[in-house]
Write a structure and sequence with these properties.
With 257 residues, the protein is an alpha/beta fold. The chain has a single domain, classed as Rossmann fold (3-Layer(aba) Sandwich). The chain contains eight helices and seven strands. A seven-stranded parallel sheet has the order 3-2-1-4-5-6-7, sandwiched between helices. Helix 1 links the parallel strand 1 and strand 2. This is SDR family oxidoreductase.
């Protein structure tokens, strides 16, 4: 089938992917490239960004920028450069984030600030900039936040991570209403446990019994980065033009338990 004739085509669309240096962000960038998009890869590690770039189908079409999303003035300069090279932006996939398992007694004000700044502030501030008239396409666009099932359900030791992801889920619904008049759709994707470098470093992955327990929570087994990336393709494409303000669970049945 001709990719340009499917409702899932991203041909001609300029899509920004944060956290594109590994895991879900890397796969989202690769899949967007496969669907015809001009992909702009953002991340902190230039070497790993280049590895992602070289894994795309058309690396010469894409751009990479190594930066800290909390450096807001630098981020705005990058957006100006993107628009000057590629034109205005059609989509943003907010993948950048950090995770941990930490009991309440170990949470400190510094740790709380770290998670809220990285998981919430960075994505919200980038969304604020991208949706400016100077940067967003006149046709409108799509904003996606990669959240987590932990933003909607509970688990021991996940309160810090959960509150940061839950904030995005709640905030995205109001953003969807606020930005609808600009033809900008805002949605979340909440994965269960996906096999990525981040999950392999998690506490539960270091112990076979704990890992098997986590696997048992997912009736369809642990996820792959492609599962989340494919959901992103749907939300970025015209196939979902009447979809906004949702939290799409891609979790192998985790929340069906």
């Amino acid at each position: 089938m001709d990719i340009e004739k499917t409702p899932f085509s991203l041909t001609g669309k300029n899509i920004i992917v944060t956290g594109a240096s590994s895991g879900i962000g890397r796969q989202c960038a690769i899949n967007c490239s496969q669907m015809g998009a001009n992909v702009i890869l953002l991340g902190r590690d230039k070497q790993r960004l280049d590895q992602t770039l070289n894994s795309t189908t058309t690396p010469l079409k894409h751009l990479t920028y190594s930066l800290d999303l909390l450096d807001y003035s630098k981020v705005e300069e990058v957006l100006k450069d993107i628009v000057s090279q590629k034109g205005k932006i059609h989509g943003l996939v907010n993948c950048a984030g950090i995770s941990t398992t930490l009991p309440l007694r170990a949470i400190t004000p510094r740790k709380l600030d770290e998670f809220l700044h990285t998981n919430v502030h960075g994505g919200i501030q980038l969304t604020k900039l991208v949706t400016k008239k100077a940067f967003i396409s006149e046709e409108g666009g799509c904003i996606i936040f990669i959240t987590s099932v932990m933003g909607a359900v509970g688990e021991a030791g996940k309160s810090l991570y959960s509150m940061s992801k839950g904030a995005l889920i709640a905030g995205s619904k109001s953003l969807a209403i606020e930005l609808a008049s600009k033809k900008i759709r805002v949605n979340c994707i909440s994965p269960g446990v996906v096999e990525t470098p981040m999950s392999k470093e998690a506490v539960y992955s270091q112990d076979e019994t704990s890992l098997n327990q986590i696997k048992s929570y997912h009736p369809l087994g642990l996820g792959q980065a492609e599962d989340v990336a494919n959901a992103c393709i749907y939300l970025l494409s015209e196939a979902s033009k009447w979809v906004t303000g949702i939290n799409l669970f891609v979790d192998g049945g985790y929340t069906a338990r």
